[in-house]
Each structure stands twice: as C-alpha cells, then as structure tokens.
Model the fold of this input.
Amino acid sequence: MSIYLDNSATTRQHEEVTNLMCRLMREDYGNPSSLHHMGLAAERHVKQARRSLARAVGCRAEEIVFTSCGTESDNLAIRGIAEARRRAGRRLVTTAIEHPAVLETFAALENEGYETCIVGVDKEGFVDPDRLAEAVDEETTLISVMHVNNEVGSIQPLAAVAEKKKNALLHSDCVQSLGKLPIPTEVLDLASFSAHKIHGPKGMGALYKAGSLHIIPQQTGGGQEKGLRSGTENVPGIAGFGLAASMAAESMDERCTQIAAMRDYLRRGILDEIPDVRINTPDHDAVCCILNVSFLGTRGEVILHTLEQQGIYVSTGSACSSHAKTRGSHVLRAMGLSGEAIEGAIRFSLSAYNTKEDIEQTVDALKKAVHRFRHLGGFR
Ligand code: PLP
Done:
C-alpha cells in the first residue's frame, strides 16, 4: 500500500468522477454543438457542470469558461487582459512566488514589449499589499496574485490587495484554494482553477471572469465557450470537473478541519522526532493541506527517493519546478531561505484520503532516512 502525500501536484481521481466520465465516453459521447439529441444530451452535461463549478466558486454559471488546464486559465486571464487593455497601459504586476504558469507568461509578455513588475514576499511567504501597491501605477492594467501558494501553503491577502489596485484588474491563480477555502470572487475580476487538484480529471481547467469583462481569446475557431475558448468541449472532462467541484464544496469546512489535524499531527511528529528542521509553512494563514519542511544538512531529493522506496510519495517543491531551468525552489528563495534550507526542503501535501497511520509511518520513515543521510552523507 502506498502513502500518497503529493496532493498539491495532483490528486487521486474520485471513483464517482471516473465512473461518470467512463459513462460519457462510452454512451453519451455526442458533440454539444450537434443539433440531434446526442448533442443536446452532451450540452446538458456541460451546463450542469458549469452550474456545479459556479456554485463551488461562488459566481454565476455564465462567468465560467472551461479550459484545458490551470495553466491555460492563467494564460488566458493574463494575456486576455493585457491585450484587451493595451491602450490603457502596458504595465503588469505579479509576485515572486507565483506558479510558472503566471511567471513565464509575464516573462513572455515582457519580451513582447510589456512592462512587468515582480513584487517580493516576506520570510513567511506573504505578499505585503502596501509593497505591492507601490508597484501599481495608473497605467497598470493587471495584477496577478495567487490565492494559496503551492509550495508553502501561505494564503495571500487578496482583499487588501484589491483595495489598492487602482485602475488595474485583479486576477488570482486559485488552483490550490478551490475546495479548501471560499474563493473571494467579490474582490476578484478573474480567477483560475484546475480539476486535477480536487480529485477531478487531468487536462481540465476553468477561468472565472466577472460579469461582462472583455478579454481577448487566445484560441480562435468554432466559437465555443462564448468565443473565449474555441475547440470542441472535453465533455467527460468538464462533467468530471463539475462533479469533483460539487464534492469538494460539500462539507468543505469539516474535511479541511480533518486534513489540518493530519497536517498538524505530521508537523508535531517531525518536530518531536527529528532534530534540525525548519518549518517553511507559516503557522497562520496557511491552507489546511500543505506542510513544507527543510531537513537541514540533507538533500530533499535523496530523502524523497528514500521514502519512495517504501511507497511514500512526497515532493521537493512544486511538480513543475522539477523541470525548471534553475535548481532549487524560486518560492523558498523569494522567502530568503539559505541554500542549505532550500536543498533540504520537502513538501508534504495531504488529502482527506490520508490517515493517522499514514502520518505515523511517514514520520518513522523520515526519521530513519534523515538520520541515515546525516550519518552516512549522500546515498541512493
Ligand atoms: N497554478 C498553481 C498554483 C498550481 O499549483 C498548478 C499546478 O501545479 C497550476 C497553476 C497549473 O495547473 P495545471 O496542472 O492544471 O496546468
């Protein structure tokens, strides 16, 4: 039996979601654009999913645009606004701890002639709204600040950021907060989501776009999703996302309390059993499921592979950063951690599927792995 503690990278798809998707693939496989009854049936599934996701997000169904992933949603929001408001200004502001889906899009826009500003964070991984406000001028058209950081779990002060946004629109990457926190749509103009982080299918995302806000589509074609995301709808994926979103919204508070209790049990176990560790997840305003810890004097990657041999799956940072050009987490670097702390960092990310026994076995395996590394040095 494996112990899966890498739920911020991706989650196990709920059985109910898989069953629904399989049924749609086998039986209700119509194209929502077709005029016959199979097309209408497919369209009904898309409508139902849009309503379910809107309910989970706290917006109107018409404000949801389905996309192929969280990355596409970030791209569509950022490029869509930057291009739509080019005449009003060319300045775009974000933070140093965003996912590459945001940071790389900003870098590409900088190369295309936009002026981008990346604001730093404090040592706990929070952006300071006042510091951010200094970067925002009258020509700034977009501010992009993630809701929950995917590596350390810090929850960003979006309401305070929104108060200082001047003429800019506020986009938030809410990929890690959906199903764990209420989405503050009342202060957001755009928000990005991904299905596979909430026990839904991979390759499915969505963008919340407030009211009649105009954005430039990044994909042209048959005009699906009100012209904002052309391409035949991934009906099984959309329906699976809708179901996963309803399940995530259902008893969210209870589930998060249970996950937070496991996360705290893990933190306690590590602190009690293993010397010389640094907890990188803040002890306030942090999401329920993430615990980032540096085992000083070790290499996170080696600890990860040692745990893997016992069927325990963790991460050294975000899954995407393992493909990055630079070594070490850009988030931990932005928080000012030492090279040693960055090198020894492990991210544990939990779900409601984790049990107390999972945590106990993990602490036990970690204790041995860290001890062995510190006494024998690097080994594999
Ligand atoms: N944004 C954040 C904060 C993420 O954690 C991720 C996934 O790791 C993404 C965006 C990208 O989502 P997707 O994998 O659906 O493209």
Remarks:
- The chain has twelve helices and twelve strands.
